[in-house]
Amino acid sequence: MCRLKGTTLQSSFRDGDVILGAVMSLYHFSVLKNHSFTEKPSPSLCSGITYAVYRTVYSFAAVMHKMLLSMQLSGYQLNVREHFQPTLLSQYLKNLQMKSGEKLYSANEGPIRQYDIVNWVTSRGTVTYTQIGSFFPFAPAKQQLIINQSDIKWNHKFKQAPQSICSESCPPGYRKAQRKGQPVCCFDCILCSEDEFSNETDSTNCMKCPKDMWANKMHDGCWNRTLEFLSYEEVLGGTLASLSILGSLLPLSILFIFLKNANTPVVKANNRNLSYILLVSLFFCFLCVLMFIGRPITITCILRQFIFGISFVLCMSCVLGKTMMVVIAFNLTKPKSSGRMWLNSRVTNTLVLVCTAIQVIICAGWLAHSPPFEYTDNKSKMGIIIVECNKGSSVAYSCTMGYMGVLATLCFVVAYLVRKLPGSFNEAKLITFSMLIFGAVWISFIPAYLSTTGKYMMAVEVFAILSSSSGVVACIFLPKVYIIILSPEMNKIEIKSTSK
Questions:
Q1: Could you tell me which of 309, 316, 317, 400 has the C-alpha nearest to residue 351?
Q2: Which PANTHER family match (predicted)?
Q3: Which pLDDT belongs to residue 430?
Q4: What span, in angstroms and rounded, lies between the C-alpha atoms of 258 and 161?
Q5: What pLDDT does 245 receive?
Q6: Which residue from 4, 8, 166, 457 could staple onto 452, CB 3.0 to 4.6 Å apart?
């Protein structure tokens, strides 16, 4: 800063006042009548002045001009030392307003609410300036600074704004992570996690999407999730539902045929009452599939496991009862055989009742302790909410399936051991094949069920139910229906073979 020669005026300022640019150091003590502020000034003794100095000097000159004119100088010399009043100068400075509308800082009025941003351009020793923007200290965040990039005239070394940051801005979908031991402007851009988003540049945090929404690929917004469950409207669900209804008609039709031919040898063989119960249980095995299709709710989640577990155990109990009947009947044909009392149907009926009651107790304990319920999974698949039934207790579910497997295995072993017994109506071979199919289906079901999710998991379980039920119907009852309808001559007691 250059210093102007002259004597400093005494008593021209008070404690706390600020001398603006040292312009109080004047060269003359008086102003003549013909002296004007419009005269050409002396050559500049300074260079590289700032905008603040420029604004202050011109403001002070304008105030002095107004003050001197207001004193109505008329042909006499005014001694500035005697008549200059600092309070009057302060009043004029408060009321001074620039052409741009800007006012100088005043301690009474508070800080300036707007600053002009000026682009200084030097060319051949001259300095020009252009307003290229404004700064509003009290404006909302990200609205304080306004810059018109097109108005900026850069030095010949630059064609655009030079980079003055350590890291580039993080786009929406990312968050800023501060680098340890480095300045604040140095950071890394971290992509928001799977269920989070950020819709602002240089966001410091990612926000979580609502549970029924998910972050899009750019992670700059949330989209509505798609609900997934085995529906009747889709091809897969509609096909399985149709197969369930058609399959349920098969045991009903066979039951009607058996009732119509109830007194024939084929129907009476191996306890026809067990055959009736077995056909009814198979009817429910087919129909329980409908509980696995459609949007799951808590009541359907409970009913599907209860009906499925009881129906299949009742089916296996009837098959086991028919197998035991074959063993008992064959042993009674041996010489000196006693125990004809075991041939009574009450024995097999009791066996069926006890085996089924055990499953009922397991299911009742399951439902009482931790019953199945509706569950939504929004993590397994991106953008999809899987609506399914939570088993409630995996132990109870395992016990239900395990008990059913034990009965099926027992039926298979007993039937296999007596498969070569003589007799035209011996069902041991048919039961062996049916249990072989039943076991193969459910053994294959385990890895297929565990490797799928969502509606395809339900489809696998439904397919296993339909396949195993169809295997029992086809192996045990279709040969008998064939004899009744197409080969009635075989449906006679005389054609039974006798042992030698």
A1: 317
A2: CALCIUM-SENSING RECEPTOR-RELATED (PTHR24061), VOMERONASAL TYPE-2 RECEPTOR 26 (PTHR24061:SF549)
A3: 83
A4: 94
A5: 95
A6: 457
Q: What is the b/e burial string over 322-342, where b = at least 16 CB atoms within 10 angstroms of the residue's CB?
A: bbbbbbbbbeeeeeeeeeeeb
What pTM, to 2 d.p., does this model score? 0.59
According to CATH, the superfamily of the domain at 235-493 is Rhodopsin 7-helix transmembrane proteins (1.20.1070.10)
**Exposure string for 73-94, b = 16+ CB within 10 A, e = fewer:** eeeeebebeeebeeeebbebbe
Q: What is the pLDDT of residue 324?
A: 80
Comparing 273-282, 472-481, 491-500, which segment has the lowest mean pLDDT?
491-500
* 433 to 9, 393, 437, 442, 459: CA distances (angstroms): 123, 33, 6, 14, 25
Sequence-ordered list of residues with C-beta below 8 angstroms from that of 452, at least 6 positions apart, any chain:
459, 460
CB-count exposure of residue 33 (10 Å: 0-12, 13-18, 19+): exposed
The phi, psi pair for 133, rounded to 5°, reads: 175, -175
> Between residues 71 and 187, which one has the greater pLDDT?
187
Distance (Å) of CA 221 to CA 22, 169, 171, 175, 311: 57, 18, 13, 14, 49
Tokens of 309: 């577990």
Q: What is the pLDDT of residue 276?
A: 92
Q: Which residue has the higher pLDDT, 162 or 404?
A: 404
| Segment among 119-128, 166-175, 247-256, 450-459 with least mean pLDDT | 119-128
What count of other Cβ atoms lies within 10 Å of the Cβ of residue 388? Answer: 23
Q: Which of 26-35, 214-223, 229-238 has the lowest mean pLDDT?
A: 26-35
In sequence order, the 6+-apart residues with CB closer than 8 A to the CB of 27 are: 4, 5, 6
Confidence check: pLDDT of 354 > 80: yes
Q: Show me where the domains of the chain are located.
A: 1-110, 113-156, 174-224, 235-493
Return the CA Rg of the chain.
50
The answer to whether 228 and 385 have CB atoms below 8 angstroms apart is yes
**pLDDT score of 48 more than 70:** no
How would residue 236 be classed by pLDDT, with cut points 50, 70 and 90?
Answer: very high
How wide is the angle at C-alpha 434 spanned by C-alphas 270 and 441, nearest 5°? 150
How much is the average pLDDT of 201-213? Answer: 87
Which residues have a Cβ under 8 Å from the Cβ of 341 and sit 6 or more positions away?
none
